[in-house]
């Protein structure tokens, strides 16, 4: 992947919507939103702490640099073999939310093609806190999902939500548009439940 640096920031209207597992609006959910990939984006204080409102959303308008990427865009393996590279505009958004009793940083990149389609060409990445407090403890991807062993010894599937939609769009069709919109919807999973053992044969959780 070839990256063409773009240094001029644009005004990005960011709206994240959080849904409960039953798709109802998740009100009062604390999260931290980090835009872009500045050197400190994995810091525990990076970005901005927010709380979802009555409509299940958080929204801010912030300056951000949209990367310009030369990507090979295809919808399936056969098309990938024939696809030529095209330039996309891209932004990374990081979301810190709690699941299984711990905070996790999930990084999602959204590309916009010249034809107007928004795509997530790269798999999202999930990080836990390392010993220095930074979110650099990479959670491995196995068989299409991320799993991490918790301090209890229990394996937890992460990050605790699924991205149901993501789009990156300019406010107008002007080639040098300085105002863009990012829309992301997250649907939470059911709460992580630790097994509880009782009785004479109870011991440590597996």
Structural description of this entry:
The structure is a single chain. By secondary structure, the protein is mainly β. The chain has a domain of 126 residues. It contains 1 helix and 16 strands. The strands form 3 sheets. Strands 1, 3, 4, 6, 7, 8, 9, 10 and 11 form a 9-stranded antiparallel beta sheet that branches. Strands 5-2-16-15 form a 4-stranded mixed beta sheet, with no helix packed on it. It is globular.
What is the strand and helix layout of this fold?
Blueprint: E1 2-4, E2 10-19, E3 30-35, E4 48-51, E5 57-64, E6 67-72, H1 77-82, E7 85-99, E8 102-112, E9 118-119, E10 125-128, E11 137-138, E12 141-142, E13 145-149, E14 155-158, E15 161-170, E16 179-188
Parallel strand pairs: 2-16
Antiparallel strand pairs: 1-6, 2-5, 3-4, 3-7, 6-7, 7-8, 8-9, 8-10, 10-11, 12-13, 13-14, 15-16
């Amino acid at each position: 992947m070839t990256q063409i640096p773009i240094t001029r920031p644009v005004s990005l209207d960011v709206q994240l919507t959080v849904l409960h597992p039953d798709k109802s609006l998740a009100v009062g959910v604390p999260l931290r939103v980090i835009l872009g990939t500045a050197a400190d984006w994995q810091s525990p204080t990076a970005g901005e702490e927010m709380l979802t409102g009555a409509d299940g959303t958080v929204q801010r308008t912030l300056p951000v640099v949209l990367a310009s990427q030369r990507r090979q865009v295809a919808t399936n393996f056969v098309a990938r073999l024939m696809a030529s590279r095209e330039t996309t505009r891209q932004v990374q958004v990081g979301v810190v939310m709690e699941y299984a009793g711990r905070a996790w940083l999930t990084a999602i990149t959204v590309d916009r093609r010249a034809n107007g389609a928004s795509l997530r060409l790269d798999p999202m990445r999930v990080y836990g806190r390392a010993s220095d407090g930074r979110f650099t403890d990479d959670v491995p991807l196995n068989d299409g999902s991320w799993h991490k062993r918790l301090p209890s010894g229990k394996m937890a599937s992460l990050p605790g939500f699924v991205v149901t939609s993501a789009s990156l769009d300019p406010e107008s069709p002007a080639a040098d548009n300085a105002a863009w919109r990012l829309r992301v919807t997250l649907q939470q999973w059911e709460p992580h439940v630790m097994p509880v053992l009782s009785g004479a044969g109870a011991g440590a959780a597996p």
